[in-house]
Amino acid sequence: MLLRTDGGGKRLVVLTGAGISAESGLPTFRGDDGLWAGHRIEDVATPQAWIRNPELVWRFYQLRRRALLRVEPNPAHIALARLESAISRMTVGDAPDSGYLEQWEEHWESFSNDRFVLITQNVDDLHSAAGSARLIPMHGQLRFLRCEHSGVIIEMMDEQHLDPDCFILSSVREGGLMRPHIVWFGEQPFGMHAIYNALYKADVLLVVGTSGHVYPAGGFVHEAAANGARTILVNLEAPQNAEAFDEIHLGPAADVLPSLVDEWLAELEQGS
Length: 272
Ligand code: BV8
What we know:
Blueprint: E1 4-5, E2 8-9, E3 12-16, H1 41-44, H2 47-52, H3 54-67, H4 75-87, E4 98-99, H5 101-110, E5 116-120, H6 126-130, E6 135-137, E7 140-147, E8 153-155, E9 178-182, H7 192-201, E10 204-208, H8 220-226, E11 230-235, E12 247-250, H9 253-271
The chain binds ligand BV8.
Ligand BV8 binds near residues 123 and 252.
């Protein structure tokens, strides 16, 4: 049984990647229409690229930020929000809407011991839009920009903030810029303490829509398995770390995940 044992429920940690947002119309990174098509990772998703060619990087992210205005959560995002409300136990405050990274780290720590924690590699806002609250966006969020001098993080999604040809200047320093609040290659992912806290305690790790190419996220399945968790994968095709999973469900997440969640919630009903 996935989520019931005598003496209370199990702890479920979920990790998602670009594949869960594919059916909302957002391209994945390594599919033929992948995000990186036309752009080498090194050209757009590293701090060096930002220094070398800030116009190219800014344009790449401004187009993706603008794309958020025209996409909706799909049944896979909604299924995870249903699962969260059925099994989580802690009350969780709202995520900060601006401020410094410490405030987000505090927020993520506050629910890292809950029975449901959702870690996403995605930088879109579809999990929050679907109602997921116990969410750690470890690679940042497109909706936010960060001042490269003061570190202040601000949600900036109004029309005037989305112009691909126009930088937004730092409010604290002459000549400074607001940068995408995104973890680039070579930068430390966010929320790692809360993530490892949740992984060490997980009874089940559910991984959805990721190739397992990028680390440290690609290694989470090994961490969870080493701590005795049951590992379950939902993916369109077998990823490079397929051998690490106890259970694999291949197919589009928007089809596979809702029926799996229905099954698990029915078990929960019977068990309770
Ligand atoms: C770091 C923001 C140090 C940018 C991203 C070993 C250990 C540690 C580091 C490394 C290591 N080896 C290499 C590294 C360095 C590097 C790395 O991993 N490089 C790769 C290229 C090998 N990692 C880093 O630099 C990281 N930082 O390590 O700091 C550290 C670590 C820990 C503690 C302290 C310090 C930072 C990496 C973050 C980079 N930023 N995102 C942006 O989005 O613009 S990564 C970006 O690419 C995404 O966020 C995502 O994580 C990744 C893409 O992966 P996926 O999401 O899996 O997408 P992909 O297209 O690959 O796969 C989609 C999958 O979905 C496929 O399997 C497909 O079959 C499936 N699918 C498609 N459609 C569907 C579907 N499944 C279901 N339904 C569908 N419909």
